Amino acid sequence: MPLPPRFDVLDPAVIADPYPVYRELRAGGRLCRVSPASWGVTRHADVAALLRDRRLGNEFPREDPQFQMDANLAGEVFGRIIPTMSVADHSRVHTVMVRAFSPGTARRMRERIGLLTDELLESGLDTGELDAVAGLAFPLALSVVCELIGIPGGARAEIWPRSAALGKAFTPFLPEGDRAEADAALAWLRAYVEDLLDTRRPDPGGDLLARLLHAGGEREEIVDNVVFLCFTGYETTMNMVSTGCAALARQPEEWRRLRDRPELATTAAEEFVRFDAPIQYTARLALEPIEIGDRVIRPGRTVLLLLGCANHDESVFDRPERVDIGRTPNPHVGFGGGVRGCLGAALARVEGGEVFRRLAARFSRLEPAGEPVRLPSALFRAYATIPLAVKP
Ligand code: HEM
């Protein structure tokens, strides 16, 4: 039996553009080899099913040498955040968070998101230039998540320069040389949240910080989860908005379509999450033997569900390499799924719908004004800059 193809997450070609590699992996079989103890799952049907499969868990045994992250601060924090919590702890923290992330909360934030977007687009209307990352995606995504959590707006300017390093702190496969920078950024944000907690009161109906304090739990757990939420909340939404702006500038026919039919903003946001999944993979641990085709994943093996790869599966998505802002249905797996699926999906959808609707309403022209520059990461599909020329 031939071995499944190898997938090197750190290969510069994968980081630059994973999609040609993904195509080969899907063609090569349902599984790929990521490391001696990790399998990658390539096709949409398997990824969608395994996201909800209880034979996979999220508690990675810290004593196992394959989970080498423990050697640094990021590794310690990784073991305490909601995605890696035990079933019981996850359920406790999830219950508190879910109330703060309800579709109702997201809808209530719609107006605020609209105002923030308009404010940010104002400078583009004046100058004819817009950096879609620094001028829109980042400040919008960070402001929204900070307001939801209860982090003062002033933190924005301090988080921005540390953003790329924070991204590294939450990346499981990280070259050794990047760890010190990632730890320093993480230590800074933890200290910031610690200070903030000292001034807050527990409140069952307050912002997320107040709710978490009210629910009790250890201080370290609260600090780490607030840090995680802040980071994951802005990084992902920022990438969705950046991807959308880059795609609309690159595909003028889709931009005209959005201008003609702004109600497509909602399916457009969904499509941007499919097209370039802000989080490219999510990890689970096999708790029982899992048969995939003629192979068996043994208990104790890590299973990487390759969301970005599944979202380009040509057996599910017609012309997956093209952005189609009206794509319906769009059963992408960009938000993960199952009990560990994304808690912020409703908020992100509202945010995406609102920002692309306003973009189309405020600008008649949106074109590239230079080459977009990527931030290198195998896990997050982020940009450093997307220069645009815009016209009211
Ligand atoms: C376009 C935007 C977003 C994308 C694509 C995204 C994607 C994801 C993915 C792939 C996961 C892992 C799911 C899994 O393993 O099954 C996840 C988990 C999570 N996301 Fe999001 N996310 C987005 C926005 C947000 C926002 C705005 C927040 C909060 C403000 C958020 C909070 C969370 C939390 C708390 C988890 C962990 C859930 C758990 O372990 O129970 N996300 N997200």
Question: How would the blueprint of this fold be written?
Answer:
Elements: H1 12-16, H2 19-28, E1 31-35, E2 38-41, H3 44-51, E3 56-57, H4 73-78, H5 87-100, H6 103-127, E4 129-131, H7 132-149, H8 155-159, H9 163-169, H10 179-198, H11 208-214, H12 219-250, H13 252-260, H14 265-275, E5 282-286, E6 290-292, E7 295-297, E8 302-305, H15 307-310, H16 345-362, E9 365-368, E10 373-375, E11 382-385, E12 387-391
Parallel strand pairs: 2-8
Antiparallel strand pairs: 1-2, 3-5, 4-12, 5-8, 6-7, 9-12, 10-11
Helix pairs in contact: 6-7, 6-16, 7-12, 9-10, 10-12, 12-13, 12-14, 12-16, 14-16
The site of protoporphyrin IX containing FE has 29 residues, from helix 7, helix 12 and helix 16.
Structural class: alpha+beta
The CATH topology name reads Cytochrome p450
Overall morphology: globular
How many helical stretches? 16
Ligand species: protoporphyrin IX containing FE
Helix share bin: 40-55%
Strand order of the largest sheet: 1-2-8-5-3
Task: Provide the gyration radius in Å.
Answer: 20 Å
